[in-house]
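Technical note accompanying the year-one report. For the benefit of new consortium partners, we illustrate the data format agreed upon in the data management plan: each record pairs a sequence with a structure-token string. No post-processing was applied to the example shown here.
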Amino acid sequence: MPLTDTTILSPPDIHGAIARAWKVSVSLDAPSATTATLAAWVISGPFHPAWHYLALSVIHLRDLAGVPPAKKHYPEADYEFVIASLDDHGGHDPHNPTLWRMLRQLDVCEQFHGMTDGQVIAMLTAFIRAICDGVASPDSDYRRFWKIQIQAAMAHAQESTHAQ
């Protein structure tokens, strides 16, 4: 899909060498009981012959009132990073995520810990830039790559904490 695609009318927040990305509005001021989403983005690019839109997000795994506990992959997990392909014929508007039609199975779903909410949001933004610039692939074949990147971010966050 060319970078001139106009399916999403608002200008992208990030315009890289091979893809564009739009930040999804997430209210961090909302009561914690309403959402676990810390940050989310929609990316448009030439990732697959049949679909061109992806949603990337990070959520916290803290308990929320009235919501069943998160299904943690290991007890210390605090966060989850997700890459999901979006149906090109369904919704992918970054301003209305309730209309998104995510394809199953998720491309990447990685849980982790040892970071602050701010560090997690910054990590996701760095990942978005890397994908848009063609340095990283959001494809499910790269799950191991994302696991290693998240482990490196966790190690960096812990080094930063100890240096203070």
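Partners are asked to follow this layout when depositing records. Residues 14-163 form one domain.
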